[in-house]
């Protein structure tokens, strides 16, 4: 399981929010590059960068910082926040992003999002499935988590899986920044449901597309609520392909030494 620290950016600074509320902003470092270099020094290879200014503005804003981190570290960066147009995507990739994450765009303009999968490939485009839990499991949220859609979480993921998506970052907004543990049960449900969906498709369609065959193993990235190191092996056992860790690192609940040891042993 990949360890993916998060850097969320507002006004060029490394911040964290609680439950996606911009009014809860806490600044942890004035220099995101400095933070990225600390991660790299600990043997970490991956980084999740969120342009929170971009999420609010519905267009990429902090691409200069992305460029700076990408050019001055060897970290493989997935970048999200406000990516709404082909131009935004080009800027992100030209600024050094290894992958990009689309959340709101996948809900509000599926045609564009599907064209990105087609153009760049399923190894470059990540589906952002941010949700508010409810009786049905969860409803997808959009626009920097400021709006809730009517789309249900698992059908939303399964639908895009059949359209070629492999990587999915799934964030339980109710847990994000709360340091109370991730949504183990929901991740298990997602992995079970998407695997079953593909099996059904393969049985009922002898001419199954190559894209669908490639997505038979969903690469689910857990996000939101990580609070202790002990949660990481549990997520790995569930079958999560990666885990995004934010506040737990910044609040010293999980040390970079622990993450370095985990990486070396796995």
Automatic annotation (TrEMBL):
<feature type="active site" description="Proton acceptor">
    <location>
        <position position="8"/>
    </location>
</feature>
<dbReference type="GO" id="GO:0000162">
    <property type="term" value="P:L-tryptophan biosynthetic process"/>
</dbReference>
<keyword id="KW-0368">Histidine biosynthesis</keyword>
<comment type="pathway">
    <text>Amino-acid biosynthesis; L-histidine biosynthesis; L-histidine from 5-phospho-alpha-D-ribose 1-diphosphate: step 4/9.</text>
</comment>
<dbReference type="GO" id="GO:0000105">
    <property type="term" value="P:L-histidine biosynthetic process"/>
</dbReference>
<dbReference type="Pfam" id="PF00977">
    <property type="entry name" value="His_biosynth"/>
</dbReference>
<dbReference type="InterPro" id="IPR013785">
    <property type="entry name" value="Aldolase_TIM"/>
</dbReference>
<dbReference type="InterPro" id="IPR011060">
    <property type="entry name" value="RibuloseP-bd_barrel"/>
</dbReference>
<dbReference type="GO" id="GO:0003949">
    <property type="term" value="F:1-(5-phosphoribosyl)-5-[(5-phosphoribosylamino)methylideneamino]imidazole-4-carboxamide isomerase activity"/>
</dbReference>
<dbReference type="InterPro" id="IPR023016">
    <property type="entry name" value="HisA/PriA"/>
</dbReference>
<keyword id="KW-0413">Isomerase</keyword>
<comment type="similarity">
    <text>Belongs to the HisA/HisF family.</text>
</comment>
<protein>
    <recommendedName>
        <fullName>1-(5-phosphoribosyl)-5-[(5-phosphoribosylamino)methylideneamino] imidazole-4-carboxamide isomerase</fullName>
        <ecNumber>5.3.1.16</ecNumber>
    </recommendedName>
</protein>
<dbReference type="GO" id="GO:0005737">
    <property type="term" value="C:cytoplasm"/>
</dbReference>
<dbReference type="InterPro" id="IPR006062">
    <property type="entry name" value="His_biosynth"/>
</dbReference>
<keyword id="KW-0028">Amino-acid biosynthesis</keyword>
<keyword id="KW-0963">Cytoplasm</keyword>
<dbReference type="InterPro" id="IPR044524">
    <property type="entry name" value="Isoase_HisA-like"/>
</dbReference>
<feature type="active site" description="Proton donor">
    <location>
        <position position="130"/>
    </location>
</feature>
